[in-house]
Amino acid sequence: MSNRPLVMAAHDLGALFGVLADDGYEVLGPTVHDGAIVIEAITQPSQLPRGWGDAQEPGSYRLVERGDGAYFGFAAPAGTWKRHLFEPRAVLWRSRRDGDGVVFEPGEHVRRRRAFLGIRGCDLAAIAVQDRVFCGSPAKSGSGSPRRSADPVYGAKREGILFIGINCSDPASTCFCTSMGTGPAIGERADLSLTELDPALPDQHRFLVHATTDRGRAIAARMNLAVATDRDLASATAVRDGAIASMGRSMDTEDLPARLREAAEDPRWDDVARRCLSCGNCTMACPTCFCADVSDQPDVAAGVDERVREWASCFQLDHSYLHGGSVRVSTKARYRQWMTHKLSTWWDQFGVSGCVGCGRCITFCPVGIDITEEVRAIRASKSVPLEEGTAETGEKGHSR
Amino acid sequence: MTAAVPKVAVWKFASCDGCQLSLLDCEDELLAVAGAVELAHFLEASSATVAGPYDLSIVEGSVSTASDIERIAHIREESNVLISIGACATAGGIQALRNFADVGEYVSVVYARPDYIETLSTSTPISDHVAVDYELRGCPVNKSQLLHVISSFLLGRRPRLPSSSVCVECKARGTTCVMVAHGTACLGPVTHAGCGAICPAFDRGCYGCYGPADTVSTTAFVQLLRSLPVSDRAIERVFRTFNANAPGFRDIPGSEHAAVGSPRATS
Ligand code: SF4
Ligand code: SF4
Ligand code: SF4
Ligand code: SF4
């Protein structure tokens, strides 16, 4: 089969669900719940957020009726794919009293065939970032599983996911994937990539379908899709160009890691600390943040002890607890840690940016602190440079 | 632990007994725990008491009378480990509203014979008077946290309790933020975790039952509430509940009703 894109009528989305079900896939995708778009298991197109768009602003998220039949006419969902890979709570292992001894059992890490339907460029990039964090290597492009599963808990969830991506048509005011090189186009990063065309015209409503892996091609082949016409391709290009043109925010990343390293004592950190609540919502909403707390949870009655991993945040006081106290006791130190990790030290640690430009931290910060605005302010300010050598030791970075 | 079977005592100060009821509510688990300890003093469960010293004392309620001060000092002396439970014991409770008013006036309005009432002008947490090993927040406390603390004690371990804001639990639970997505005022960002973010999951803002988070930033949060908008009068009311006297909640920027008697430093 040639690799020319195909077209699928919008009403054939149901057939796609059928093929996925026949192959035993559990489909996760966007759906409306409690006034927001979240990612949950879905089984039919009617569960998609059809006709819904979103209005995202710093500290505010609202669903808006689009007035057309678009299935994917919104930006980064309020919910994250992260919670389906790096779960908020996972039992790592459990010990059980057995007579005079103790038996150790692994936690349950159920392997399921899963398809992520409607994932966007920023979120595909975020998963690639977490692959580096948990597995020490980026996944092969598209459907591949990580090469080495350093973290078996994440690895079991991550294995064999089929990605059906969507090229964004309607970025939010908070989106800046173009700056981070992660979107809106997903290129060949999904098994199948879709572009939604003409959602306002019921008889024209269709998807451009681009299959880039063997698995993707095999699924497309079973759907008997027509080959895309030049008009389809032109429409898809217009969608992409329109998305790029309406990107709500931007971030100048030129030399940013070094710039932030030098800005450890910038007065802007005091300014943001006066606004920041230290609530941790930004870290929880962020698709790349990976911090967790590990604890033992005893159940004396059952004679069982569980070692549990739960989401944690660098905005918690005890996150930096060392012997005798916490290192980052001020909001200033905590916000600085978060932002410089995302945009600067993440590069040193994982060789990529920790920010993919999805804008969730901006939208879901109750007080609307905007990472792009903070970067702009720091770039504009005349930072007091660190004294010779201190930037390397990080000594000042730990000041309170 | 001093004895093979640890002696545990449960004490009540000014409180509604709700936290002790959380302990009784543990039923099956409590039976297992009860088998592992000697319940030497727990009047909610049994009127039979055993004299100290105690390996573990669990204290409910706030200090609100002169005799409370003596009693808590004595309990501390008799106890190896002392845990205070609930908003009354850890912050002073709803009765600490007197700290913002004239207690004499309250007494004269409420009681038919005010002269029978002997009380301090403030209601204060246990930790204002004696050293406390662990504090368990909440109104009432979360029973699984209570069991975790007791189980950890039995195993000779340090309990691990969440220390984040409620928002961290809320996001982990998968709830869409009611403040960001619906414009509902929510105390989650300034409130200590522990309840599992129940209220936002039922489409309501957090009421702050677990008191101020370790990282509470009252000034920035009050600015946020004003922008929703919430009136200054309403802002004062949301903070003046079970944890009204806790540092971080007691001093609301712009409030005319300051706390009297500030035994603890404010943040
Ligand atoms: S950041 Fe880019 S890829 Fe992500 S939702 Fe916005 S436009 Fe789409
Ligand atoms: S830092 Fe903010 S914009 Fe960047 S990936 Fe995280 S949530 Fe998205
Ligand atoms: S930046 Fe916003 S979301 Fe993040 S901790 Fe501060 S107030 Fe909370
Ligand atoms: S609903 Fe309340 S507790 Fe939950 S994230 Fe929003 S502000 Fe925090």
Order of helices and strands of chain B: EHHEEHEHHEHHHHHH
Structural class of chain A: alpha+beta
Total beta-strand segments of chain B: 5
Q: Distance N terminus to C terminus of chain B? A: 36 Å
CATH architecture of the largest domain in chain B: 3-Layer(aba) Sandwich
Radius of gyration of CA atoms of chain A, rounded to a whole number: 23 Å
Biggest sheet, spatial arrangement of strands of chain A: 3-2-8-9-10-11-1-12
What Rg of chain B is obtained from the alpha carbons, in whole angstroms?
A: 19 Å
Q: DSSP helix count of chain B?
A: 11
Strand coverage percent of chain A: 15-25%
By CATH reckoning, the class of the largest domain in chain B would read Alpha Beta
How many β-strand stretches of chain A?
Answer: 16
Major β-sheet annotation of chain A: 8 strands, mixed
Mean pLDDT of chain A: 91
Oligomer: heterodimer
**Broad structural category of chain B:** alpha/beta
The percent of residues in helical segments of chain A reads 25-40%
Tally of individual domains of chain A = 2
Helix-residue proportion of chain B: 25-40%
**What is the H/E order of chain A?**
EHEEEEEEEHHEHEEHEHHHHEEEEHHHH
Please outline the helices and strands.
The complex is a heterodimer of chains A (400) and B (267).
Chain A: E1 6-9, H1 13-22, E2 26-33, E3 36-41, E4 52-57, E5 60-65, E6 89-98, E7 101-106, E8 114-119, H2 121-135, H3 152-158, E9 162-166, H4 177-180, E10 192-197, E11 206-211, H5 214-222, E12 226-227, H6 230-245, H7 256-262, H8 268-275, H9 281-285, E13 292-299, E14 304-311, E15 321-322, E16 325-326, H10 331-350, H11 360-363, H12 371-380, H13 390-393
Helix pairs in contact in A: 7-10, 8-10
Chain B: E1 7-12, H1 18-24, H2 27-36, E2 38-42, E3 54-60, H3 66-78, E4 79-85, H4 86-91, H5 103-110, E5 134-136, H6 143-154, H7 166-173, H8 178-182, H9 198-201, H10 218-227, H11 232-239
Parallel strand pairs in B: 1-2, 1-3, 3-4, 4-5
Helix pairs in contact in B: 2-6
Characterise this structure.
- The complex is a heterodimer of chains A (about 400) and B (about 270).
- Chain A folds into 2 domains: about 5-245, no CATH class; about 255-380, no CATH class.
- Chain A is built from 13 helices and 16 strands.
- Chain A has helices at about 15-20, 120-135, 150-160, 175-180, 215-220, 230-245, 255-260, 270-275, 280-285, 330-350, 360-365, 370-380, 390-395, and strands spanning about 5-10, 25-35, 35-40, 50-55, 60-65, 90-100, 100-105, 115-120, 160-165, 190-195, 205-210, 225, 290-300, 305-310, 320, 325.
- In chain A, strands 3-2-8-9-10-11-1-12 form an 8-stranded mixed sheet, with helices on both faces. Chain A has a 4-stranded antiparallel sheet with strand order 7-6-14-13, with no helix packed on it.
- In chain A, strand 13 and strand 14 (about 305-310) form a beta hairpin.
- In chain A, helix 7 (about 255-260) packs antiparallel against helix 10 and helix 8 crosses helix 10.
- Chain B folds into 2 domains: about 5-155, NADH:ubiquinone oxidoreductase-like, 20kDa subunit (Rossmann fold, 3-Layer(aba) Sandwich); about 165-265, no CATH class.
- In chain B, helix 2 (about 25-35) runs parallel beside helix 6 (about 145-155).
- Chain B is of the alpha/beta class and about 270 residues long.
- Classes of the chains: A alpha+beta (about 400), B alpha/beta (about 270).
- Chains A and B meet through strand 5, helix 9 and strand 13 of A and helix 2, helix 6, helix 7, helix 8 and helix 10 of B.
